[in-house]
Amino acid sequence: VFSWMQDVSGLDDTEMLRTFNCGIGMILVVDKALATEATSILLQNGEDSVVEMGTVVEGDGVRVTHALS
Predict the structure, then answer these.
(1) In this structure, is the dihedral angle defined by the CA atoms of residues 8, 11, 14 and 19, taken in order, positive or negative?
(2) 22, exposed or middle or buried, with CB in 10 Å at 0-12, 13-18, 19+?
(3) How far is residue 12 from each of residues 23, 40, 51, 64, 65, measured CA to CA in Å?
(4) Using an 8 Å Cβ cutoff, are 2 and 19 in contact?
(5) I need a labelling partner for 4 at 20 to 30 A (CA). Which of 11, 33, 45, 58 fits?
(6) What pLDDT score was predicted for residue 30?
(7) CA distances from 2 to 9, 10, 39 (A)
(8) Over the stretch 19-51, which tens digit does the pLDDT of each residue have?
(9) Helix (H), strand (E), coil (C) string for the chain
(10) Residue 42 CB burial class (10 angstroms; 0-12, 13-18, ≥19)
(11) What CA–CA distance (Å, rounded) separates 62 from 6?
(12) CA-to-CA distance for 65 and 55, rounded, in angstroms?
């Protein structure tokens, strides 16, 4: 729906992201050893954008170790 909204509104990418919640639609948490296989399966089944977003590590609380810019 966001592609359609951008087409009919004429907004550029920056304004779309500033105006609308164009967030992540789905996340999967998989073992790092399976990340390549999981990505391949998603792409073979129609997903067109697969991004490694971060790493889960043992520890107290929440700490971001890697994030999208």
Answers:
(1) negative
(2) middle
(3) 16, 30, 22, 29, 31
(4) no
(5) 45
(6) 94
(7) 10, 12, 23
(8) 887 677 788 999 999 999 999 999 999 998 888
(9) CHHHHHHHHCCCHHHHHHHCCCCCCCCCCCCHHHHHHHHHHHHHCCCCCCCCCCCCCCCCCCCCCCCCC
(10) middle
(11) 35
(12) 7
Closest by CA position to 32, among listed 8, 56, 64, 2: 56
Query: Residue 1: pLDDT above 90?
Result: no
Q: How far is CA 57 from the centre of its chain?
A: 19
Tokens at residue 47, please?
């997903």
The mean pLDDT of 56-67, rounded to a whole number, is 74
Give the pLDDT score at 65.
65
Q: How many CB atoms are located within 10 Å of the residue 1 CB?
A: 7
How many Cβ atoms are within 10 Å of 40's Cβ, its own excluded?
A: 11
